[in-house]
## 1
Amino acid sequence: MIIFGTKGYLYQLAILTLVCGQCGNPAAHTLRKRVTKFTLFFVPLFPISTKYATQCTFCGAEQKVTKEQAEQLQAQAASGQGGQQYGQPQQQPYQS
C-alpha cells in the first residue's frame, strides 16, 4: 500500500502599502507565496505548484501576480519604498 498526496504551504513574503484595485483604498497588502508539494508517506518531496498573490487588509480582496511581479514587489519592500519585508518567510501550512 502506497500513501501519497499533496500538502500546501503559505509564505508571507512582505507587507506593502498599495492602492487596492477592488475597493480603491490605499491600504496594506500582504504579498504571499503558496507552494503545493507532493508527499509520499506524509513526507513532502518536491513542489508541484507555486503561486503568488497580494491580499488587501482593508477589504480582503486577493489578486494573483506573476513571479516577476512578486519579485519586483519584494524588492520594492526591501528598498523601503512600499513597506516592511520579513527576513525569513513564516511557514504556515494551509488545508487544500
## 2
Amino acid sequence: MKVRFLLGVAAASQLALTVNAAEPEKLPNIVFVLVDDMGIGDVNCYFEQSKIKTPHLDELASKSLQFMQHYSGSTVSAPSRCCLMTGKHTGNAYVRGNKGTVSEKGRFDLHLPKEEITVAELLRGKGYATMCVGKWGLGGPGTSGSPVNKGFDYFFGYLSQSEAHRYYPEYLYENEKKVQLNKKVYSHFLIMEKGLEFIKKQKNGQPFFAYFAITPPHADLDYPDLSQYEDSFDETPFVNNQKKGGFKSQAKPKAAYAAMVSEIDANVGQIIALLKKKQVWDNTIFIFSSDNGVHHVGGHDPDFFDSNGPFRGYKRDLYEGGVRTPFIVSWPEVIKEHRKTSHIATFWDFLPTVCEIADIEIPGNTDGLSYLPTLLNRERQQREHDFVYYEFYEEGGKQSILKDGWKLVRLNLSKPEKLKEELYYLPDDIGEAKNLIGVNSEKADELRKLAMEQHTESINFKWEK
C-alpha cells in the first residue's frame, strides 16, 4: 500500500519514548469493545440519537478522542475481524467474506492459516496477557485459526458465526471445550461475566489485551427484559415464516433493538468501572467500535432509529453506511480532553498502532499505518492513507475505493455483462446521492485502475462464478 510518509524514523522513535512504550511495567493495557452490526447513528455522541439511551458511551466520548471518519475492516463480520486482527485490507486479507467450512467437529468459519500473524500474537510476545470473549469468526476448534492458536490466552464465546445468531445457544466454547448451556442461559450475560473476570484476575503491573467481541445488537433481536423501551415505540411485529432457520420472531423489534444497544452501553460502564476500581484506567487504551454498518434483518428498522446517520447503505453495502463506524478512543494519561479528528483511519490500522505503542516490529506485509500521532494530538506528523479500498464477494461482487474525497463503487463484478459503476464526491455528497460517473470518466478511470492494483488473488474468494 502506498502512503505519504510524513513522519520520519527519528520522530517515530520520539513518539514511542513519549508514551514509555519500551518499559514493560508502563505498557498500557488495551481494551477493545467491538459490537456486532450497530450503526454509527445509534449512539448519541455522533448524530444526536434521541430514541436510544447511551449515557456511558456519551460520557466516554465527552472525554475521549472521537474519530469522525473511521472505516471498519469490511461490510460483514468475518473479514472485518480479519482486517482488525491482521492489519490487512480485504484486497490482501486471507478472510474476505463470511465463508463456512465443515469438519468432524461441526460447521465453523474459514480459519486463518498459521502464517497469518495477529495483533494478539504480537502482544503476547511482548508480555501481554490476552483475552477474547464473544464471537471469533476466524477458525474453529483444532484449527490454526482457533483463538487459542492465534495469540489469545483465554477465549469464551462462539466459534461459529452461524451459532452466534442465537442468544440462548446449546453451548459456548471455553478455549476449545464446549460448555453446555442447553438453551437456558442468555449468552451475552455469561460472555460479559467471563470477560470481566479475566480483567479482575490480572495482577498489578501485568499489561493485558482484552478483546470484547460481543454479539449485540446483531439479530436475533432478543433480549430478556424489554421494560425500558416496551411502550416507547409503535411496533410492527416481526414474524419468522420460515419452517426452519431464519431469525427469531419478535413482537416488539424496536424495543428489543433499543434494549440491546442500551445493554452495550451498560457493558461499557461495567468495564470502565472495573478498570477504575483496579486503578489501571489512566493507563488503559479503551476503544469502542462496530464491526460494520447497521443490519436491517430480524425486524430491525434502521431508518426509524436513523441507525446509519446521514450515510447511505447498511451492512453488505460498500456505501458509507455499510463501512463507516463509530470509533472512540480513551487513554486518560495521553488524551486529556475531548477531541474530534477528521483523520481517516481503518481497522487495518489497529495492528501497526499497537505495535508502535508497545515497541513491536510491524510485520512487513500489512496495509495499515499507525494513528499514534493522532492519539498524541500531533496530527501534523500523522501519515495519511492515499486511499481506502474494499472488495466484497456477496450480492454479485462489489468493490470500492476512496481517494481524495472521490469514491468509486463497482457492482456486479461476478456478472461482467451487468457491471455497474458509480462515482461520488463525498465532501459535497456525504449521502452518496449524486452519481458523477457520466461527467467525470477520467476520475473513474484513475480510481478503477488503482482499485484493481490493490486486488490480490485468493484461493477462497473469487468474483468469477
## 3
Amino acid sequence: MLENFTFVGHSGLDGFGDYGDLSAHGNYAYIGSRCSATHQGGDGVQVVDISRPNRPRLVSKLPNPAYTRAEDVTVLDVRTPSFTGALAVVGIQACFGSGHEAEVVPGIRLFNVTDPAHPALLGHWDLPQGTIGCHEIDAVQRADGQVLVACARNLVDHRNSKGATALHLIDATNPAGPATRADWSLNADPGQGVGCSAVQFAHSARFEDGGNSVYVSYWDAGTVHLDISKPAAPAVVSTTKITPPDEDGDNHSMTLAHNGQWLIINTEDTSPADCPGDSASGGWGEVHVYDNSNPKQPVFLGTFSTSDSRSTRTDGEYTDHNTEVAAHDQFFSSWYSDGIVWWTMTEHGVGTQRGQFVPPPNSDGSSSEVWGVYIDKIHHVILASDMSNGLWIVKPDRLGTF
C-alpha cells in the first residue's frame, strides 16, 4: 500500500530475516538484528550505503557475538580528547532459547564508523554473564563534552532483580573505556502492572534537552522524565501515566515535538493477541499526546490511531511502536502490520492520518512488521526497518519541510 508516499528503494540486507531498529548518519543506514528462528543471533548491525536512496547497498556489518542480538543502535558525531568521528552505539542482549544465555556477555558495544565500510570496535561496557542485557539504548554528547549512553534493561533482568535493575547511564567520553555514571530505578515491582501486559519495567530511554534530561518509558509505571543535569544524580521531574484513558497502560517509547511542547508516548499495546476474546482489554495500541508546556505536569491532549489499531483483528499486529517528528508536527510512526503511518495533530488534540506505506506481505503470506522508523533529513526520505524483509525507503508526497 502506498498512500501519499512514493516508493524509493528497498534492500533485503543479508537475508537473515530477523531485523530490529534502525538509525542513520550521513549517507548510511544502520539496521539492528535479532536472533532468528534458530536463536543463534550473531548477525550484527547491517551498514547500508543510501547515498542513492533508490539503490541501497550493504557495505559492512558491526559484529556482535554468537547467541546475542544487536537489536538497537544509534550513531552520532562526537568530538572528545580521546576520539573524534562518527560513533555507533549498539545494545547487546542474550538470545532466549539458545542454550547459551548464561555464557554470553551482554551490554554495550562502541564502534568507530567514521569510515562506515570499515568499522572498528573501540570499546565495550559489559553486564554480568547470565543477565539478558540492554533492551534499548540511546546516546548523546552534551554541551560540556560528556558522551552519555543510556541502557534500559530487559524485562527479565527487572524480574530477576525484583525491580532494582532498570537504567544505567554510562560515560563514553572515552569510547575505549566507558564507565558507569549512575544506576537508577523506580524499584517498582515488575509484576504489579495493569491490563493484559501487566508489568512495570524501564523498556527504553531517550535523551532530550541536549542530554540534560532522559525520558524513561517505564511501561505501566509511566513515562518518567529525569533531570540529569548532574548525570551521577538523576532526579525525577514528572511521571506521565496513560491510565486512564488507556486500559492497558503500556509506555513503550517516547519523543518530544513542537520544540518540546508536546510529549508523544507510543504504547505497543498488543492486547488482542495477549488477551483474545477479552472485550475489556480494547484494541491495539495508539499514540498518546500530552501538552508538555509545564514539564513537571504534562496534560493529556489527545490520541491518534489507525482504523486497524482500533479493531481486534488478529491477522497481524496493528499497534504503534516508535514515532519520529518532522517539521514540528508531522509524525511518522512504525506501526508493525500497518507499516509506516504519517499523521498530524491540531493544538486541540485532533489527529489526522496523512499517509501510509505498508510493505508487501512475506513469502508465506503473513503480514510485514515494521519495527523502526527514521526521518532522513539529508535525502528527504523515510527509512523503515521491516523485521523480515530489511530496509524500505519511501518519500512522503508534498511534504515541503523535513
